[in-house]
């Protein structure tokens, strides 16, 4: 049988860097901006304590955090009496440390494009709508002139309800710039009030945040549905 201590150390150092960083920040009262994040690693674990080593930027030094299980506060009050208790204790500690910093335990590392659900299809539909509004804001007749001699397009348009055509001419041509501005304002409000805080809480990296912000600017509420489903 393999050494349980070695298994825990290997697993945590390989797959749970974020949790180790959180342990140091919360239990070791270390300012995260001075912590060399990829330096944090477990050097020892037994039924009494966990020992974590880490580097600091300012002042530049290597330090050790020796944390007894009985001193590691967390919400579930798990007592470590055997090796089988340690996994649950570490998870509870990770949740506690993340919560104390106002974060979720896991980091959001990806951005998801719309799927084929109802909200996803609505999200996809917003991309061509933006193109239409941008072009018609520049010249309300640009698309009408472009398709004026397209027999197939004009044949298909005849099947549309007259109300839909009137709505397009009013909102998509005559007032395209106003509609576009309204969409931008509403979607920016969503970003600042909803999307931004969710991404911050889930510690999304800058490039991931930028992708979500772009999709939210174009699509609106479908992005919030995807984001909440992904982070719940």
UniProtKB/TrEMBL annotation:
This is DUF2470 domain-containing protein. InterPro entries: DUF2470, Haem_oxidase_HugZ-like_sf. It comes from the Eukaryota. Residues 5-93 form the DUF2470 domain. It comes from Lodderomyces elongisporus (strain ATCC 11503 / CBS 2605 / JCM 1781 / NBRC 1676 / NRRL YB-4239). It holds the Pfam family DUF2470. PANTHER family: MEMBRANE PROTEIN, PUTATIVE (AFU_ORTHOLOGUE AFUA_1G04315)-RELATED.
